[in-house]
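Quick bug: Transposase family protein output formatted oddly.
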Amino acid sequence: MLKALYQAKGIKILVYHFDRDIQYCSNLYTQILKRNKIDISMTEENRCYGNALAERVNGILKDEFYLD
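Here's what came back:
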């Protein structure tokens, strides 16, 4: 996440998408995101296909637009 914060300087809107793994749902982790004005996007409970869609979109963005 630190690398993302460093590279995102100057970007007005950031969305961080993750599944509901416990480390990403922790109070400390979400507070860091909120403090840096990063919107949180999470898959719905027991909806594993939502994460697959997000991963596919991220893959297309990286491959087609050379985004890391």
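Actually, after a second look the formatting is fine. The radius of gyration is 13 Å. Closing.
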